Amino acid sequence: MPSLFLILTLAGLALSQDIITLPSQDNVTDYAPSLNVECPDFSTTSLIREFTPQNQSLHPSEVQYVEGRFNTTVQAAWNTWLGDGSALSYNLSAFQGHFPKVGLAIPGGGLRAAQFGAGCLSGLDARNDSAKAAGTGGLLQVASYMTGLSGGSWVTGSLFFNNWPTIKDLVYGDGQNLDGWKLDLPFVSPDGDDVFSEDNQYFYGSILWSVIAKADAGIDTSITDPWARAISYHFLNQTNRNNFFTNATAHGAGQLWSDIPNIPAFQQGITPFPLIVTDSRPAGSNLTTALSPLPIVYEISPFEFASFDPNLSAGMNLSYAGTHLTNGKADNGSACVKGFDQAGFMMGTSASLFNQIFDFAHNTLQGFSSSDSNTFIYILQRQLRSVRTRADDVANWPNPFHGLKPDTFEDSGSTWLELLDGASNGENIPYGPLFVKSRGLDVIVTIEGSADDPNNWPNGTGAIATASRLSTILLSSHQQFPPIPQTPADWVSTGVRQRATFFGCDPTQTPAEYPLVIYLPNSPPINGDNPVTNTGTFTLTYPLEHTQLFLDQVHFNTISGFTPNDNTPDPNFGLCLQCAAVDRARTKVTPVVARSSICSQCFQQYCYDPLHPPSQSELPNRKLVFVDPTPQGLTKVEGFLGANKFKLLGGLIGLVVFIALLIGGLIWWKKRRDREMQYNRVNNFHDDSDTTGLWPRQQRYSDYHAEAYELPNTQHVEPKFTEVKALDSPP
Ligand SMILES: *[C@@H]1O[C@H](CO)[C@@H](O)[C@H](O)[C@H]1NC(C)=O
Ligand SMILES: *[C@@H]1O[C@H](CO)[C@@H](O)[C@H](O)[C@H]1NC(C)=O
Ligand SMILES: *[C@@H]1O[C@H](CO)[C@@H](O)[C@H](O)[C@H]1NC(C)=O
Ligand SMILES: *[C@@H]1O[C@H](CO)[C@@H](O)[C@H](O)[C@H]1NC(C)=O
Ligand SMILES: *[C@@H]1O[C@H](CO)[C@@H](O)[C@H](O)[C@H]1NC(C)=O
Ligand SMILES: *[C@@H]1O[C@H](CO)[C@@H](O)[C@H](O)[C@H]1NC(C)=O
Ligand SMILES: *[C@@H]1O[C@H](CO)[C@@H](O)[C@H](O)[C@H]1NC(C)=O
Ligand SMILES: *[C@@H]1O[C@H](CO)[C@@H](O)[C@H](O)[C@H]1NC(C)=O
Ligand SMILES: *[C@@H]1O[C@H](CO)[C@@H](O)[C@H](O)[C@H]1NC(C)=O
Ligand SMILES: *[C@@H]1O[C@H](CO)[C@@H](O)[C@H](O)[C@H]1NC(C)=O
Ligand SMILES: *[C@@H]1O[C@H](CO)[C@@H](O)[C@H](O)[C@H]1NC(C)=O
Ligand SMILES: *[C@@H]1O[C@H](CO)[C@@H](O)[C@H](O)[C@H]1NC(C)=O
């Protein structure tokens, strides 16, 4: 890449001969987009699709994919799953191929949500023997859409960029091409607590190299970029335990979301159509709180970066994301951008929670003493405050919609969009795209791994937020939510958040006025075991045994349903799930087919009827408090800190250190640009003999703290690192 080379040379960094090798095809610097790409001819082609709130059209390629497989692959999958329908007392051929259109939604919540998503999908996957035997396996195969947000976007992206393997192969590796998620390697300090260890520094070095390559190309970066790169090491396919700390592969750099249509499984039509969700804060607002429901919510498909929010109602060709357009045109027809839609950056954008980390802290720091909490929040605050002025706490996207719809589109006047974690507006479940009316979904399956209550169980907060946004903001461009309990307290007391529940079973109109929502929440094991699945969002490391127990527990609950007042699986749950999935087919044919008696029985047990709400008391012996299944690593600090607290602490400290290092690196880099000719100054960072590396070696990062961070009172940072280390020794 000549431009990078030139800039590095200008910066006066010594490049030794052995570092200048031919660019390989597989390089962490492939994270840099290409600028100055020839644009399409704007007189005949548009990169923007505009539609009206009243008549929202889908991208033609999406329609082609979804409709193309609906009457072929999906129809066959229904027949495989339900057979001739006789087990449900239906005659399937009476439906004449009018099967419901199904979508799956996987919410946010970091690695907990990603693992919950994986475990639940394994219980719905026809390729999994026990799921198939239970009758639940098959729902995944009939799905037309799949949406993910934040941690949910990681499992979504991971499935696609590893060519749609089974969950077992995806998460644990298959001993061949797939290397697994490796969640036992800490997300932000993979070589362990010593962030200054050689391997950790190699890791940060590679990550920064990617990010700086992007910045050198001329696209503003932010803390979301290193985050995106760390995500790629686990969820994309080029990283294994042997190359983790090397530059031997690109570690996912260069893999583009817009390349999904080339992935073999997609080409064969065996995957649902993926969409991930990201929020925006009004550009220039500097908001650091949770968002109101008003700001635009975006979706990223393999074809488009778009919003079906009525006030925008437009989409942009994803291949050209990163291009500044005004009224749909680039200022310079030879200066378009490609390669901005890095798979890691798409997942990172959807998980860009940095601007409101304090709100997340509100959820997850409950185990802290107030002094611990204050200290760490103070450090985070200082770090983030220093970058916030540079809008470095959001995902920076050149605004392709600049100039469009000035009367309604809030960011019409802005040249950049400030994108955030898809849960920032309170909608932790990526429901929005699935309720878009033109997509016509009949059934929406919620793979609900949200952590709402103090024990990290869901309590309806996300669904309530979406129901309200649909009815107050999205209105007639979207379907409405079926009736649900009105408050989190009602979700708790009715027990619907602790068992499979179907919402919207009995619409009053034909066609139905809302989709049927199948709700599969993260909940305590039905058999009364201790739960291992309600971990904190900031738990960023999982020993392998924990991941295994986690997935097995979720899988078991997913295929089991519940038996009222008992702790045993419901042998009919598979049938009941089939009843729910296929129910809307009955009303698509004339005359309408009556609901069968076995399905009516199922609906009595699993449907939420607002007039006769169920009760939590039907769910006995559910243990709510997390029990760490792998406490070995903690024995030495027991008595010093509670187990859960330590885990949260470890995750949070990792995050703090990570952010500190990366922000340090970024700021240092910016300063380097400012002083590009001041070689001596830069060389001051090289306080040992390492003058040959592109970047100063490890120990230098601590110097950046002292010299280059521009943070007020940086001395508050250093003592805390020391204190962290102290936790490792016995009290
Ligand atoms: C990656 O690309 C950079 C810049 O083009 C080059 O200097 C470096 O040698 C490449 N690394 C590998 C491992 O190919
Ligand atoms: C348009 O971009 C190309 C490629 O970067 C550049 O060579 C050219 O000078 C630019 N034209 C204008 C008018 O800025
Ligand atoms: C909606 O858009 C479609 C496709 O662009 C067009 O065929 C149809 O006439 C439009 N309908 C209305 C009511 O505007
Ligand atoms: C799929 O089949 C249904 C029922 O036969 C039909 O109404 C619909 O038009 C078909 N869709 C496509 C895209 O072929
Ligand atoms: C199912 O319906 C089809 C078409 O309506 C009919 O031909 C067939 O005989 C029915 N099968 C049974 C078992 O009733
Ligand atoms: C099915 O899923 C369970 C739970 O994740 C797993 O233990 C089992 O190995 C899976 N079976 C297959 C065939 O993948
Ligand atoms: C990794 O993913 C990329 C992009 O999807 C693909 O081209 C490549 O073949 C994959 N590699 C392996 C080993 O699966
Ligand atoms: C990979 O490259 C980056 C940038 O030159 C460097 O900081 C890092 O140490 C390298 N990793 C290894 C293992 O050499
Ligand atoms: C946001 O921060 C920037 C940079 O500090 C400042 O110029 C701008 O006025 C701030 N905007 C608001 C609405 O406070
Ligand atoms: C994006 O634009 C290019 C150039 O016009 C075109 O070839 C491609 O099909 C477009 N992609 C999508 C998804 O619209
Ligand atoms: C949409 O635009 C209208 C007109 O500017 C405005 O009144 C309304 O508040 C906007 N809606 C949202 C959700 O921002
Ligand atoms: C539900 O979750 C919210 C956070 O999303 C929390 O503030 C509230 O206390 C919880 N309420 C109940 C009843 O669990």
The CATH first-level class comes to: Alpha Beta
Major sheet description: 12 strands, mixed
**What distance separates the N and C termini?**
52 Å
Domains, number: 1
Number of helical runs? 23
**What gyration radius follows from the Cα positions, in whole Å?**
25 Å
Per CATH, the architecture is 3-Layer(aba) Sandwich
Strand content: 5-15%
Annotation, overall tally of beta strands? 16
The set of bound ligands, ions and cofactors reads:
2-acetamido-2-deoxy-beta-D-glucopyranose
Poorly predicted runs: 1-24, 358-390, 633-650, 674-731
The global form is globular
- Overall mean pLDDT stands at 83
The CATH superfamily title: Cytosolic phospholipase A2 catalytic domain
Structural class: alpha+beta
Helix content: 25-40%
Looking at the structure, the CATH topology is Cytosolic phospholipase A2 catalytic domain
Task: Jot down its keywords.
single chain; alpha+beta; Cytosolic phospholipase A2 catalytic domain; disordered C terminus; binds 2-acetamido-2-deoxy-beta-D-glucopyranose; EC 3.1.1.5; hydrolase; phospholipase A2 activity
